Amino acid sequence: MNVATLITLLFLLAGLVAPLPYLTALIFILSALSAMSVAPPDLLGGTSVTPQSLAVLFFLLRVCMKSDCVKEILISFLDFKKLGLLFAFFVIAAIGAVFLPKIFAGEIFIYNMRTTDLDQLIPSITNFTQAGYLFLSVMITATFYVLLRQNPDFLDALLKAILAGGCAVIATGLIDIVANLIGKADMLKIFYTASYGYSAGEILGTRRVLGLTPEPAAFGGLAMTMASLLLFLRPVYAEKMRRFWVPLLGWSCVVMGFLSTSSTAYASLFLMLGLYLFYNVDAVSEEGKILHKSTSKKMLSIVFLAVCFLLVVLLSGNFVDLINTLLIEKTETSSYIERSSWTAAGLNAFVESYGLGVGVGSVRTSNFFANILASTGLPGTLFFGLFLVSLYLRHAPKRNSREEAVIKAIKFALLPMFAAKFLAGTTPDFGVLQGILFGTIIALSQNNDHLDLMKLQYQRMVIKRKRNL
């Protein structure tokens, strides 16, 4: 255990006694340290425990110590109008992880999670570790649903945590860039302690930035996740924050995603920019009403993006070649061919298992949705698909409210994340950060007497801040 791991553990242990907003911020911040394992992988059979996973576990322990929270979570799991569809998906996935690899052992060829070689399906420890990661994602969805239902003010803690996550992405990206510029990249090896190591490399002479994550694709995907959240949620922050700090952090995350030179991040970036042009929420008024962008602001957004694009083209001599290599010629690369073979083998496993799947943790793909099919079969895919559809059909009880603005922003922000998972999702785990967003949508779309109280408190906060200016 090195100094970096020890310090991270101390911050995590502080979360056992600190207020829940502290742990919430840690969950977002530690997502930028995904190449670190807080425990030696050799002691855990090669399994890496990331700092974020431990932060989530501590968060769940803290919340589940309250009996009323546990009761509310269980009720939500049994209600299809709440989290019933997601829980049904998890139950199918968990049962499949235990039994399906045994049922189809030796009969189906797949690319497993531990190697990149085509091999026969056999039961493995990854069936349990991946099911465990999925469990954490489902539980974090439920806990945020319950917390926001019981205490709507917790939404502000979540918004601050997203800001902290954006800062972490920018900081780790800059650390990676500076360390390599001064020739001290080896110093960062203390952060790369997970069993899967790390890889960076160059494309057309351009060094790929990976921050403190295992690879540029992981860093680029995380950067675009934070960028999407910050830019689409900008209207719901306080006026000072939404006018300067939130856009600054959001566009800085976009820059980090660009510097990752990841084809997945670039595809996510272009989708996000396209959606941003059609996003018409500008702010939330003191009365909690949604204010829409004027025509002039929409035109200004188009001009701003066009100028930024031209500057990138002019200042980066190999930009066109880089885009051509990453997006146009990608299909001719060995990496694309290899990843496509993973997905093809996964879909073949789905067919050969008669639509039942081969179990969570059994198969590696390069497409999140294909992995759900290959791992959980038609039953799991059906329930998860219905859950996603239900999310996008949800609205706040009052359509012209801050809660509706949050729901709309998250719906937009999720689309670039799904695009990234479509291009590079290796497991059926939708992820902790996405789980938090799922829980937020469901909580804010439920009828709740506390919502009027939250609106009143928000108005009082704005008025108080104006008086202090």
Account of the protein in words:
- The chain is 65% helix and 4% strand.
- It has 469 residues and is mainly α.
- The protein has one domain.
- It is globular.
Which helices and strands, and how do they pair?
Blueprint: H1 3-14, H2 20-29, H3 51-64, H4 67-77, H5 84-103, E1 109-111, E2 118-120, H6 125-150, H7 154-181, E3 202-203, E4 206-207, H8 216-233, H9 239-259, H10 263-278, E5 281-284, E6 290-292, H11 295-315, H12 319-328, H13 334-352, H14 368-392, H15 402-424, H16 432-445, H17 450-468
Antiparallel strand pairs: 1-2, 3-4, 5-6
Short description:
The protein is built from 17 helices and six strands. By secondary structure, it is mainly alpha-helical. Helix 4 crosses helix 6.
Largest sheet: 2 strands, antiparallel
Terminal Cα separation, in Å?
48 Å
Number of strands: 6
In one word, what is the shape? Answer: globular
Structural class: mainly alpha
Q: Give the strand order of the largest sheet, numbering strands 1, 2, ... along the chain.
A: 1-2
Features:
single chain; 469 residues; mainly alpha; two-stranded antiparallel sheet; two-stranded antiparallel ribbon; 17 helices; 6 strands; 65% helix; 4% strand
